[in-house]
Known about the structure:
Elements: H1 2-6, H2 19-28, H3 31-34, H4 40-46, H5 65-85, E1 89-93, H6 99-108, E2 111-116, H7 119-156, E3 162-163, H8 171-175, E4 185-189, E5 198-202, H9 207-214, H10 218-232, H11 237-245, H12 254-274, E6 278-282, H13 291-294, E7 301-309, H14 311-322, E8 326-334, H15 360-365, H16 371-377, H17 381-385, H18 392-409, H19 428-438, H20 448-458, H21 462-492, E9 499-504, E10 515-520
Parallel strand pairs: 1-2, 1-7, 2-6, 7-8
Antiparallel strand pairs: 3-5, 4-5, 8-10, 9-10
Domain Methyltransferase: 66-341
InterPro entries: Methyltranfer_dom (IPR025714), METTL25 (IPR052220), SAM-dependent_MTases_sf (IPR029063)
Amino acid sequence: DDDIFSSAFCENSEKLINVHLFALAAKYYSLSNLGVCTPIEDVLEALKGDSEGATGIKPDEFMNNKKSHEVQVMSELVDSIANYCGIKQVIDIGSGKGYLSSFLSMQYNLKVYGIDSSSSNTNGAHERNRKLKKHWRAYQSRGKENLKSQHLEKANDRPVESEINCKTINKELLHNANSLPNQDQVIIQDLVPSCGFTETATLKTNTEAEADLMTGTQSHETKLSDEVLAILNVLPADAVEDFSSSHNCVELCEEEKVQRKMTSLQTKARKSSESNLYFPLTSCITAETELSDIITDLEDCMMVGLHTCGDLAANTLRIFTAKPEIKAVCSVGCCYHLLSEEFENREECHDQVWGFPMCQYLKDKGWCCGRNARMSACLALERVAVGQMLPTESLFYRAVLQVIIEEIYGVTKSDRHVGKTFSKSSSFVDYVRRSLKKLELDDSKLLDSCIMDYYEKYKHRMNELEAFNMLKVVLAPCIEVLILLDRLCYLKEQENIAWSGLVKLFDPVKSPRCYAVIALK
Length: 521
């Protein structure tokens, strides 16, 4: 009841007088309590998604815990949507270093275009993807090694020694396989410099072992050949051909030759397609962006965005509604403080496309959040609730710095940023001097003693500042709700949308910006 919650504030002074009621009101208006979210399990079920995901390895082999969690959950959902819509092309907006893009392409065989405005990000994504592919095939082959050893043991009636850390085999080794001594051990260097692995594999090349492997009943021969060829799929296609032709001790039946040729061609095709599954591109995306100018083979596709910054999340939804080729969207936004607001400064900019509000409902009301509210929306209540407290000291440093800048330099507004100066500073004096240099203000005006006087003057108010910031944390989910519901309402206002919803994708402790806006045409 709004009337009950309003009594948290004094009617005359409008000051907060009931903190408990304030917290209850904030909880009441949080997204988890409003009942507007669709559970991800329901979405996957409706899409006929497989809750176990594709077979393969977990991304935590290549990413930190937070990124691994985000990529694994989101990629499964994206794959389910793509399958439901019958599409194979995905456009990852604000793809950054390509974590999601590369995982979607390798794990789910989707053709992904990752677009980022930073060339250093896309160049880094190219290099990272190149290395990742080599790791990926290596890790995927690990699961086959036990099976391989078992079949070779049965075929040769003797154990085959193998100690495998990583799986990459070069062509030269296979070309020279017949010249290797029996039971010789070969050290195979991994192709990935950062991996640093070597592997020791024992190769049997004597005629007796080959004959044992390739002879027997027709059914046994076919069964073994399939299994061996499946193992050899990790090798370059021409190496597979050379390896098969080297077994000249046995006359292969025509059926077996055709089967091996087909397998070789399939392997070549797979290798060729794999090399072109992920394309990092550099471009700045706006609401007016023509994707066909960036992607020459644009086809029916879906757009995704994992923590698209500021206005980019809003523009992703606008492009989705405007382009008929884009059949679905899955967007997780972040950096609400960087959103542009139509009614914040009340300036007439008729051709400007704003990040907030998006929906006509809030536009008609002339709704405005303001920078302070948007900054608050970025805070992580769930993390604070489990003991990951706010950085009180650095916030205190920043607050006192602002007083100094206003009183000594007369500056109340600046386009420059202090950034992460606190972590590099040895003391408050050092922090102030570093910050003034970043703001291009003359720090010679200030003596160290003067700086410390400000510190001492406000030190007793540190607890007050912490309490104030905790109130902002409590309010954060309510402001995030407003921004997310604005985006959902915008989609509901469109005529070409079959379904749209908000879905909680991530564990908010691991990833505070955990809600996805999803829509299908």
